[in-house]
Amino acid sequence: MKIISKHHSFFPNKLIKGNITMEEKAKKKLQTEQFSQSISNFVARAEERNDKLYTLDQLSNTYKIQRRRIYDVLNVMEAIGACQRTVSDSIIWLGLDNVRSLLFKLQKENGVNQADNPIVMIVPNNVCISMGQLTQSLLLCFLSLQTKSLDIKQVSYFLSRTNNRYKTTLCKLYQITHILEAIGIISHKNKVGEVCINDSFFAVIPISHTVEIQGHSPYSIESLLNRPLSDTEGIVAQRRSDFMVAAKQNQFQQYFMYPIQPAAVKTS
After folding, report:
1. What is the mean pLDDT of the chain?
2. How much of the chain is in helix, strand and coil states, percent to nearest 5?
3. Of which family is this protein a member (predicted)?
4. Residue 112 belongs to domain spanning
């Protein structure tokens, strides 16, 4: 009788790892790389060509991207200001040069430049989460915390701090960062889950410390003498601390909601 060792697979052409074979994992990796390359090819061509109007069918057929994934890509691109959706199933390409303008606008609208605005107000979390909304929230985390690198899991814990949708948030953020990397906005680091915003898009607006005294300009002697003592470094440090506290608290809650089940012990 032939003895099969514990290192021998019943499937000689497939190495098993968990519930996914190595063959399936390699296939998925190839599909992911092709997906990224398709996005990069579209962005490069759209930046070079004069025609700015594209239909969803055209994008799907030309770049071999499934239609459902086209929607995800366009939602992310629209959230960063690179394109605009039209009434029909078409988009207008606005260009990567428009991204910095959108980021400045996003920071002003959410009060990143306001010294007394805490991180939980700048980056609110909502029950309804979309690809576009999470994309902007991720970028706001980079800019309001004035950091070029973030851990995706920490961001997910922070963004789901009250809506109890950590797993969904994490899954979508992985998709978003993958798309943003293909566009050239961020890049993944060697550490698993760590992403870094590229220098050309790290467009941080300065935090205003001026206080407007009634009847005086915010830049008058009276206003300048009464400005808050806290400086930019102190404000950013507080925001980073609040971010980590909120993320850790949610992580703690998630642990008790979905505890790790101990491995079954075989009894004799």
Report:
1. 84
2. 50, 10, 40
3. Belongs to the E2F/DP family.
4. 33-206+232-254
